[in-house]
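lol ok so funny story. i was supposed to be doing the assay writeup but got distracted and ended up predicting the structure for this chain instead. priorities right. anyway since i did it might as well share w the group, maybe its usefull for someone
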Amino acid sequence: MGRGQHKGRRIRRNARGQSMVELALILPILVLILCGILDFGWILGNQLLASHSAREGARYAAVNATRTDIVQLVSGKVTATAPAYAQDDLTVSIQFTSLQDVRSGDVIVTATYRVTILTPVASILLGSEVYDAAARCTMKVE
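and the output, tada:
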């Protein structure tokens, strides 16, 4: 074995070791970024679902405002459009701005439910392991 071959093997071994050190330094940062992306997407998706549920409830209330059982109907509509994992912890609030003549005012529907955070990264930033996905929608009564 010549002197040049022995030196080439040592360079390859050093390059492999260098790659392992670089991976060890970068991997935690990449995992943090990935966890942040997952949590952000989870929170944003649930916020959009809460918004959709509140909008569906407000639309239903705007069209059927004169019914006597409107509160139960709107709560049922919001619950039906909420994700299945959130239906047990769902809070629905319905307000009419004009109680004398409901048709002359607006309806305000608020939907709120608790979402469990997926990774500890967002829990540290938010200071809690749960996030309250809440949305409010106001519509003119028809």
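The radius of gyration is 27 Å. The mean pLDDT is 90.
back to the writeup now i swear
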